[in-house]
Amino acid sequence: ILIWFAVSRAMLILAGLFSFLLSPNARYPVKAAVLRGWHLTPYRLLDMWARWDSGWYLDIVRNGYYIRGDIHTVQSNIVFFPVYPLLIRTLSCIFPQSLRTTELYLIAGLVISNLLFLAALFLLHSLTAASHGEKTANRTVLFLVAFPTSFIFSCVYSESTFLFLSLASFWAAGRQKWLLAALLGAI
Fold first, then answer.
1. What is the model's pLDDT at position 19?
2. Which residues contact 45 (CB under 8 A, 6 or more apart)?
3. pLDDT value of residue 167
4. Which portions of the chain are predicted below pLDDT 50?
5. Which residues, other chains included, contact 127 with Cβ-Cβ below 8 Å and sequence gap of 6+?
6. Are 54 and 156 in contact (CB under 8 A)?
7. How far apart are the C-alpha atoms of 179 and 187, rounded to whole Å?
8. How far apart are CA 48 and CA 120, in angstroms?
9. How many Cβ atoms from other residues are within 10 Å of residue 89's Cβ?
């Protein structure tokens, strides 16, 4: 599992590096994209892991929840669940306030996403092996890490958190720990 995880994530980093080196606009982001908030940091190899909702999660980490205006006409960060931003903020708290930059929050989000994805892979393997055998469990994990959209589990998104908590809930239910299963499912 560790090897598949490491190889798949290394391939993603290489793909990002090659796209950065081969794209004529990679070093000079389009101003419209910057204005849309698609570039959160000037470090492109770090920034490539944060798009779309990453900005909202980082906004929650920095500023908490707030309503920007009329909820019918203005977007606000109140629609995002709090667990993932809370994990980023908690991990970031080990650093002094002066070091808490967008880059640090991005790194914290990447660490959390990848650790939870790795933990989810172990849980998935365990659950699948118990019901379908070791060979099927190995293929299941391999297919998940090799699936083209699995990069999303390593980005600054809450998907790896959701996957981990969902699988942990099934794991607890399989051991008839109903309160823990319900709590993990609710989180």
1. 72
2. 13, 16, 17, 20
3. 97
4. none
5. 167, 170, 171, 174
6. yes
7. 12
8. 23
9. 17
Q: Determine contact, residues 168/123, Cβ cutoff 8 Å.
A: yes
Burial class (CB in 10 A: 0-12, 13-18, 19+), 124: buried
By residue count, the chain amounts to 187
Contact 117, 164 (CB under 8 A): yes
Burial label, 103 (beta-carbon count in 10 A; 0-12, 13-18, 19+): middle
Count CB neighbours of 173 within 10 A: 15
Dist. CA 48–CA 19, nearest whole Å: 10
Separation of alpha carbons 86 and 30, rounded Å: 32
Q: How far lies 153's CA from each of 12, 18, 158, 163, in Å? A: 11, 20, 8, 9
The residue written with tokens 């959209």 in the block is 149
The reported pLDDT for the residue numbered 24 is: 57
Q: Is the pTM of this model over 0.70?
A: yes
Q: Tokens 């006409």 belong to which residue?
A: 73
> 131: which 2 tokens?
């019901």
Place of tokens 């709590």: 183
